[in-house]
Amino acid sequence: MAVLSPDEFFRGPPEVHVGAPGRVNLLGEHTDYNDGFMLPVATPQRTDVMAARSDDGSFHLYSATLDEAVDFAPHDSTPHGFGRYMEGCIRLLQARGVDVPPLRMYVRSDLALGTGLSSSAALEVATLRAIRALLQTELDGVTLAQIAQQAEIRYAGVNCGIMDQMASSLADEEHMLFLDARTLDHRVLPLPAGAELIVINSGVPRQLAESKYNERRGECEAASKLLGVQALRDVRDVADVESLPSPLKERARHVVSENLRVLEACEADASRFGQLMNLSHYSLRDDYAVSIGALDELTQALRTDPDVYGARLTGAGFGGACVALCRAGAAQAAGERVVHAMRAAGGAAAGATLLIPAPTE
């Protein structure tokens, strides 16, 4: 069966058409649910959601990307898949007093699933933006991100932090977004001068809800309790975690050192920023134990390229993609060299590259 077009699904034009980007996190991995600091940027790729009021009293959701449809009555629930994220957004808006009528919603995305570029947050944010536009509801960017986060936690079963949704709601492609997960303070910062980004898919898909993500969060909470702090963000000296038993010591060491790396990176030049990215990957590999062989091989291959300042996994780990900071104008060629060399050597099945070019003056 052919993928439905928007005109076929709506039997005419939709009432609204909005979108939201994915995100690439440059530094600050697994810090958001520890009340820490992060530096994401938005991707050029995005998820679009079109919406219109339903004419039959039921919700109808369709993903052109997956060629999957979900239908449910106003008081029923969607059983599985992408619909859980969208239903979560609808139910949480209703809980806030927004009268969300039955809707038809059409989704399409050029964000690759399972790469760690936050396709789920883009879907949530785009869904909320579509409902906001359709119903003319007052909903600022931070509140929207908070609702999106709760949709993922309560309806998709991923006990995530706030970074992905904040980045999808507030970030752009030309700047880093510095985020403080505790206060939700945020500010836009320039990328390091003379640098641009390349993202390479490792070829190993990531399933976050089925990974050890929730386990890592529990370990951080246990470490915080033993240290007598509200969250690991409150530990400012890495030496303070050395009294913890393993693996809590290693998990806490990553979070504390990662927060320090983010704070330093805000004013770092491209060379030092790349070094901090390398250190972040080693910490994620050795202390947080969320890297895999394909990600280690890919980041190491990137580091050996003369036009790469530094590289690390991006996203929660357990598969997905790597990001590298490269000399401006050289990122695409560097990425192609690395992918070609890895494939020629029979290494990890590195996939498509995503270029985020240096900002134009």
UniProtKB/TrEMBL annotation:
Record-stated family = Belongs to the GHMP kinase family. GalK subfamily.
Question: Enzyme group, top EC level?
Answer: transferase
Indicate the secretion signal residues: none
Report the EC code(s) recorded for this entry: 2.7.1.6
- Specify the taxonomic lineage: Bacteria, Pseudomonadati, Pseudomonadota, Betaproteobacteria, Burkholderiales
User: What gene, per UniProt, encodes this protein?
Assistant: galK
User: Which keywords belong to this entry?
Assistant: ATP-binding, Carbohydrate metabolism, Galactose metabolism, Kinase, Nucleotide-binding, Transferase
Sequence ranges assigned to domain GHMP kinase C-terminal in this UniProt record: 265-338
Q: Where is the GHMP kinase N-terminal domain?
A: 85-170
Looking at the record, the residues that make up the Galactokinase N-terminal domain are: 8-52
* Transferase recorded as keyword: yes
The molecule here is called Galactokinase
Q: Which GO terms describe its molecular function?
A: galactokinase activity
